[in-house]
């Protein structure tokens, strides 16, 4: 292909219409930032209750952004919300999308089924991407007819505040699709890093073992959880200490990631089960969202 044709094909993958599937913590944040940065957004979930909750959450988060804008704030919220359509229809979600970002439950079979449905309704040029934290990206897209249009876009919680986007090249992701995902990250005002499809990519591969080591350190009685958190905030400049951050991410999410990796890599000691994490999960104390984890939020 000559350079002019390559330029045309790259331009043709420019992303303006973004669909987000899953309107929970991450999906609502991705939809919000996409709308804030001028994209037309379709946000999909299984039922109206989930979409209603997402709408309220987005309005609240936009309120936090808008309060720094003075008189422009109200119009900013109105304009941003007007760019988001809420739907439970997969057909509507796929129909006009240039890019679909999936942020549903962390379950391989459920994600694979969703992508088959999305591919059936999407245009041939539509890019399909997953926000998975811990599953192999290539496995999620393995059953697609066109695996070259598929990759990973891994955002961080809270999406409106965290400036990073990991862009993951899966086994078959084409160069054009990878470049379009990187370009879209910039259009979302995120800084992008390039990743290959390895467990945890960059951030979670380092962050999850660190969080688990912090819990193990407290289990050994080497320091209190409060002192570990103070130490990492003031000694390493982290915005949250590791036990606070584990509560923030969700102890269920931490356990799910660790268990999956332990099963896949039983000889890696960094992925070994952590007793306190299992116990808190059994007690339903899964962090901030449940009102209690390592700390109480009641
Ligand atoms: N929407 C909009 N604005 C928000 C917001 C949201 N959801 N959350 C926080 N903010 C804004 C607040 O309005 C506030 O703005 P001002 O300072 O202008 O008033 C500002 O952010 C700071 O918020 P707070 O004062 O409430 O608290 P903070 O200073 O501790 O910041 C934080 C909150 C941004 C979450 C910060 O503590 C932080 O960066 N924590 C670490 C988070 C982190 O590491 N996330 C990654 C988790 S791992 C992951 O996501 C990957 C995975 O796969 C599991
Ligand atoms: P969440 O539970 O807050 O939201 C998931 C949403 O998906 C729910 O509203 C649920 O109703 C919906 N859903 C489930 N199946 C669906 C389907 N078939 N079609 C449409 N909607 C469906 O979860 P979350 O924390 O936002 O995580 C979503 C994804 O993002 C997961 O893959 C997770 O690993 C990843 N992720 C999470 C974090 C985090 O810190 N929580 C960070 C980065 C990535």
From TrEMBL:
Its UniProt pathway annotation is: Lipid metabolism
Give the UniProt subcellular location, in the record's own words.
Mitochondrion matrix
Segments forming a coiled coil: none
- State its Enzyme Commission number(s): 1.1.1.35
Tagged with keyword Oxidoreductase: yes
Give the signal peptide range. Answer: none
Keyword set, alphabetical order = DNA-directed RNA polymerase, Metal-binding, Mitochondrion, NAD, Oxidoreductase, Transcription, Zinc, Zinc-finger
Q: Which domain of life is it from?
A: Eukaryota
> What reaction is this protein's catalytic activity?
a (3S)-3-hydroxyacyl-CoA + NAD(+) = a 3-oxoacyl-CoA + NADH + H(+)
- Where does the UniProt entry say this protein principally localizes? mitochondrion
Question: What protein family does this chain belong to?
Answer: Belongs to the archaeal rpoM/eukaryotic RPA12/RPB9/RPC11 RNA polymerase family. Belongs to the 3-hydroxyacyl-CoA dehydrogenase family.
This chain's protein is named 3-hydroxyacyl-CoA dehydrogenase
| Organism expressing this protein natively | Oikopleura dioica (Tunicate)
Q: What is the lineage of its organism?
A: Eukaryota, Metazoa, Chordata, Tunicata, Appendicularia
Span covered, complete protein: 122 to 419 of 421
